[in-house]
Amino acid sequence: MAKFTLRTTAFALAVMALGISDAAAQGQPPIKIGSFLAVTGPASFLGDPEAKTLRLFVDEVNARGGVLNRKIEVVIYDTAGDAKQAATFAKRLIEEDKVDVLVAGTTTGETMAVVPLVEQANIPFISLAGAAVIVEPVKKWVFKTPHTDRMAVEKVYTELKAKGMSKVAIIGGSGGFDQSCRAQAKDLAKSYGIDLVADETYGPQDTDMTPQLTKIKNTAGVQAVFGCGFGAATSITAKNYKQLGMTQAFYFNHGVGSQQFIDGAGGAAEGMRLPAAALLVAEQLKSDDPQRAVGLAYTQAYRAKYNEPISTFGGHAYDGFFLAIDAIKRAGSTDKAKVRDALEQTKNFIGVDGIFNMSPTDHMGLDLKSFKMVEVKGGKFVLAE
Amino acid sequence: MSSQFVQFLIAGINAGAIYALIALGFAIIYNASHVINFAQGEFVMLGGMMTVFLLALGMPLPIAVLLAIAATAVAGMVLEKLAIEPARGASVVTLIIITIGASILLRGLVQVAMGRNFHRVPPFTGDDPIPVLGAALLPQNLWVCGVTVLAVLALRWFFTRTMWGKAILATSHNRLAAELVGINVRLVMLVSFGLSGALGALAGVLIAPITLTHANVGIMLGLKGFCAAILGGLGNFPGAVAGGLVLGLAEAMAAGYLSSQYKDAVAFVLILAVLFFLPGGLMGRGSTERV
Questions:
Q1: Cis peptide before B139, with omega less than 30 degrees from 0?
Q2: Among partner residues B7, B135, B212, which is closest to A232 by beta-carbon distance?
Q3: I need a labelling partner for B158 at 20 to 30 A (CA). Which of A170, B202, B226, B266 fits?
Q4: Is residue A288 included in any domain, yes or no?
Q5: Residues A119 and A156 grouped into a single domain
Q6: Nearest CA in chain A to B9
């Protein structure tokens, strides 16, 4: 009988505790995460999965009871890729919506437009954009999740060097992402002993790259071609490359890391290689790889909710969101300075982009190991290392 | 040098044929109504995207292609019926602005319905390059050129040999006189938009296997087609074809022999030069002003 009473009491206590925590969750204001993303416009293939990912995992964390007994609320604005809009929305998020942390900025342009605001308002900001300038030099309140384009070039050059290939031709678009990649490729060439023998450009809306590729084909001694770009143009480049019967090794940067690239090229992408986040090949990682579980979990959750293939871009938002949650948990509050300090002290955080180890001198926290070299084989990305 | 030149030639003619088809669409509507239809690029996009959509429903390629062209022709007529006809009293500038609005609407609808991703349409007959004089030609390139030639011939026959074509030409020459002799001008407008829609969609399905297609593919193609139409003399059919070819070749040669960075600039500099020296276009008649 006594036992029974004890059990009943325990049950009653548990119910009460639940009630209290529930009351706390309702009584306390939610933790607010602010975001501005290029959900529409030319960078929508990046911003759209990012927004979807944020919504998906906010719901998931709330279903598990939230963080610090508080619900999470996300406010997302669509910049359509416009840097000026990004600055306006960032101001609104900080001053009117009074968000606690920003996980935002699909493109480098949007991010850089917001950096001065963020530094002035003293609010932690995790950017989802690629370029190295965002965190080099380090800015006190600014962090980022994706690998930099510089790392992508380093990864490719490392492999070229290992294979003894030194004469490289570049083909890329005239857009910001492509140009940044091209600049890094030129900048790093000397230190890897790479000789850039051709450099061809196409417009972002171009539909035929055979003239540019023909020039590369007729340049003597090209051992490998390096493509800087993303979107439809890269698939067309791959198709034209095959059309011209070119046989040199072809490497792309990480911008083509989506199944769309392969499908768009219609078989022409076979054998082409690129550095990509481990997420892209999560199923193929060894079972003891710490990134396997988190990559698979993300893939399954995203597919189940949206019924479309994942891209590495949505993964950047996943990492940004959970880095913020992790830092808020460790800070024990949403005090902006404490969250910032906690973010900077992030160690061994296993995300889909890699394992983050932040420091006062490194606000990205990823190293080359988090990039995997993958090859297109049989219409899929296959781990090539 | 020669194989390189042949390769640039192939690229140029291929792009030129597509520009020509789009320019013809501009010319037909311009002739019938003096409206420059800025939704012409969206017809190109609709052709490609509808094909993708119908293929996804499991239809065989030829049927999907034909249905997509027919559906776009209908879309052109609906555009005329719902947007242009109710505003027929308005000035030409107003009508042009309406077409810009329509193009944004079409683009938006397709983005909502089919997403913003790019899609591939399988080539009509294989994907293996054919070697020609050291250069490589895709079977689809032959389709583009062959079908464009056929389309131009068919149009020529339509405008010179059929009652309908003659009615459209009559309307373009003198709308009032055409109305007086009993031509149903409203129907002529409807047919011209349908025909333009079909031509745009034809261009769209022909290049989709080579260039992929997406909701925004029509913007640049429409603009280039417009340039070709201007280049050849707005409203002039042989001029539209010539303008398209000149533009395509100029682009390919510029990308190949000059710097590929200035490729798009070449097209627009060419337009400026032609408008400056030959205001009526390459094949334009000297403009006559009736007082």
A1: no
A2: B212
A3: B226
A4: no
A5: no
A6: A211
Split at pLDDT 50, 70, 90, the class of A20 is very low
- Kindly list the residues from chain B whose CB atom is less than 8 angstroms away from the CB atom of residue A236: 210-212
DSSP string, B107-176: HHHHHHHH-S--B----TT----EEETTEEE-HHHHHHHHHHHHHHHHHHHHHHHSHHHHHHHHHHH-HH
- Asked casually if ipTM beats, i.e. exceeds, 0.85, the reply is no
Highest mean pLDDT among A31-35, A243-247, A282-286: A31-35
The predicted-structure confidence for A42-76, as pLDDT tens digits, reads as follows 778 889 999 999 999 999 999 999 999 999 999 99
Do A230 and A359 lie in a common domain? no
The contacts of residue A43 (CB under 8 Å, 6+ apart) are: A81, A106, A107
Q: Are residues A26 and A155 in the same domain?
A: no
Q: Tell me, yes or no, whether A37 and A101 share the same domain.
A: yes
Q: Which CATH number fits domain B2-277: 3.40.50, 1.10.3470, 1.10.10, 3.30.450?
A: 1.10.3470
Q: Which of B9, B13, B212 to mutate to probe the A interface, most A CBs <10 Å?
A: B212
Does A4 score more than 70 pLDDT? no
Range of the domain at A102: 12-147+293-366
A20/A101 same-domain check = yes
Q: Which residue numbers in chain B have pLDDT < 70? A: 1, 284-291
Contact check, Cβ <8 Å, A207/B216: no
pLDDT of residue B52: 94
Question: Environment class of residue B72 by beta-carbon count within 10 Å: exposed (0-12), middle (13-18) or buried (19+)?
Answer: buried
- Rounded distance, CA B257 to CA A350, Å? 50
Which residues in A lie closer than 8 A to residue B264 (C-beta atoms)? 203
- Report how many domains make up chain A: 2
A207 touches chain B (CB under 8 A): yes
Mean pLDDT, all residues of chain B: 88
Give contacts of A235 with chain B, Cβ < 8 Å: 118, 120, 212
Separation of alpha carbons B285 and B291, rounded Å: 18
Whether residues A175 and A131 share a domain: the answer is: no
Task: Give domain status of residue A4, yes or no.
Answer: no
Question: Domain holding A307: CATH number?
Answer: 3.40.50.2300
Say if residue A267 is in the same domain as residue A327: no
For chain B, the residue count is: 291
A307 interfacial to chain B (CB closer than 8 Å): no
At A355-374, the pLDDT tens digits run 999 999 999 999 888 888 99
DSSP secondary structure code for residue A192 in this structure:
G
In a domain, A215, yes or no: yes
- Can you give the pLDDT at residue B205? 95
- pLDDT tens profile A109-150: 899 999 999 999 999 999 999 888 899 889 999 999 998 888
Task: Give a yes or no: residue A287 inside a domain.
Answer: no
Task: State yes or no: pLDDT of A13 exceeds 70.
Answer: no
Same domain, A377 and A268: yes
